[in-house]
Amino acid sequence: MACCGNGGALEKTASKTIEAKEIVEKVGKEPEYAIPLLQEIQKRHSYLPQDLVEAVSAEAGIPVANLYGVATFYSQFRFKPQGKYLIRVCHGTACHVAGSDIISAVIAQELGIEEGETTADALFSFEKVACLGCCALAPVVMIGDKIYAKLTSSKIKAVIKEYKNGKT
Ligand code: FES
Question: Which atom in ligand 1 lies closest to the alpha carbon of residue 90?
């Protein structure tokens, strides 16, 4: 019996094509929709999966190089899957003065990753961001949609421990 053995790959391609159609129908297909198209992809997947970007490119008739040109220009877009918990460390002026460098160093040490990386167990991603809009509470870290304020080395260690233990 003949078997091509790539049924899974074909199914995956078909599902990406269907999803790309949905995205383009929802957002639009003119070149000026490049940013909203990429935002919609990222909203669904938390990053830009290459196969879906290519499928959207084909569906919208926008060259894939143009989509990647836009995506690499804006820091909001991610090219790798994100961990379950995204840790955003504020490095705005107030937080910087209040010690955000130390907070970032502690996070990097506790998780064994650098900024922009994801832990091997896919639990945490860590990034530095500009002002989170609550400067009076500096230094501030946001994990998911929760804000952690007036942090110290020991406080952020305790917070990370809680997430590792699933107590959040
Ligand atoms: S500088 Fe960190 S919240 Fe504004």
Answer: 2
